[in-house]
Amino acid sequence: MLTMQELSQGRTLAEEQGMTEEIGSAVARLAAEEMTAGRLDTARSLLEGLAVTNPRDPAAWAMLAQVERRQGRSWTAYLCAETAARLAPEDEQVRLVRAEVLLAIPEQGPAARAELSGLAGLKGPIGERARGLLAALGPR
Amino acid sequence: MPAPVQSPPPLPTAPPPPEADRPSRLTLDIEGSTAAADADLARNLEGIDRFAASMPEIFREPIRAMLRQGAMAAWVFDVARSVRVTVRGYAPPPGLPLPKPAPPRPPVTYVPPPKAKPKPKTTSTSSDFAFLHDAKLSIEEKLFRFMMAVQKRTDRELQDAMERYEKEFAKSKSTSSGGSSAQAAKKDDGGGLFGFLGDVVDALGAVCPPLAIARSTLGDLGLDKIVTQLSGPLLASFCTAWGLPMLAPIALQLAPQVVQSVLGETSSSSASSSAASSSGTSSSEKTDNDERYELMKLQRLVEKQQQMFSLISNMLKVMHDTGMTAIHNIR
User: Fold this and answer.
1) Subunit contact A36:B93, Cβ cutoff 8 A
2) What pTM was estimated for this model as a whole?
3) In chain B, what residues touch A27 (CB-CB under 8 Å)?
């Protein structure tokens, strides 16, 4: 049982329950499948559970940001994406998710474009997607 | 020879989730025993129930449902870890960036592989309190000395905290004091309904620090939209993720109630507004959060001193009054 005191000291439910990183990854993978299949509510429940279980896992926050964006809650998605970016500022996938979330908020267009420009030079699927999004946005 | 797919063990307090909610697309070829995973699941569910029971009633059911779902998923993968798992009907997600097969993650706080637990550190402050075992001292004297010892220690902590603050923030503040007045002037700019909402959210930020952090992240636009969408547990996790776990219990208990009671009637009208200025996160905002955290630590230390003072002085007063009453009675 996680007491309020332990919670305030930063202990996570994952530690309390003996949940390993492997299980966390597996739950995230399951949520990704639910997301791909369009079952966003189920994916959201899983990811919220994962974020509550281990708030220091950037993957949970980044994926939750994606789900929230797809469900039209742009600002919640923004908060989740910023949290993921704070936890893993250098992670390219987290940065891509953040850029996509920023694109959904009209006022954040320039910030999204800047983030995508930073990713466009990368090789692989992330760079491709960033370049594709930039092309779709068109010139300034 | 693969064994038939095993169903999850019965849940202790509630029926298993309906078939539609289970990850039905997984085919598990189970070669070993699932007893360990079953035991883990039962233990996890029991822990979840206990945890949920310790929550305020308003969160109890949502957090229980959420965590039980997570525990069920964990059970599936706990079993699947040692067996072959085939996912049918899905091509690998082409455009979906997450999750990657083996993501290079920063250190996360899942349980590390089993190792010996470190012994709790023992602080050697016993010499400060050695007078407690001195048989020659009266209880009043002991109380007084106790108060002095605690005061001395908290003074030291307070001094350290102030020096830390001075080292990290005061210098940078002095160099950029010109900008702060402009910020202060910018702060109160709103009238009308959205201005009122801003005031409400200001008040919420003061009552519930996590909301103030969210505001520093999102600027003025997002907070009133977001507070009605985040659950208490998620806000608490948000605090932990942002390095402020001490605020997590506050967020868990306070935020949703305050938000519901204050913003319940006004949140619907906030969606129409769109202002132009909205700054993204920057290093200065991060510094602001850190600074706020350090100031809160200072505040906590001062409060601790106050509590200790009032506790001890009340005790001394009561003892004195008791003695005086006895003396008055004799006269």
Assistant:
1) yes
2) 0.43
3) 70, 73-74, 77
Kindly provide the ipTM of the predicted complex, given to two decimals. Answer: 0.79
Query: Residue B77 and residue B71: Cα distance in Å, rounded?
Result: 10
Contact A74, A63 (CB under 8 A): no
Q: For every one of its 331 residues, what pLDDT tens digit does chain B have, with 9 covering 90 and above?
A: 555 555 555 555 555 545 444 444 333 344 556 677 778 888 888 888 887 787 777 777 777 777 877 777 777 767 666 544 433 333 444 454 544 545 555 555 666 656 655 555 545 456 777 888 888 888 777 877 887 787 788 888 888 888 888 877 766 655 554 444 444 434 444 444 334 344 444 544 544 555 555 556 555 555 555 555 666 777 778 778 877 777 777 777 665 555 555 444 444 444 344 333 444 445 565 567 777 777 888 888 888 777 877 877 788 788 788 888 888 887 6
CB-closest option in B63, B109, B242 to A15: B109
Contact A79 B245 (CB under 8 A): no
E strand or H helix that includes residue B109: none
Please report the sign of the dihedral spanned by the C-alpha atoms of residue A101, residue A65, residue B255, residue B310.
negative
Mutate to test the interface with A, among B75, B87, B98, B227 (most CBs of A within 10 A): B98
Contact criterion met (CB < 8 Å) for B249 and A96: no
Q: Which of A94, A102, A34 lies closest to A74 in space, CA to CA?
A: A102
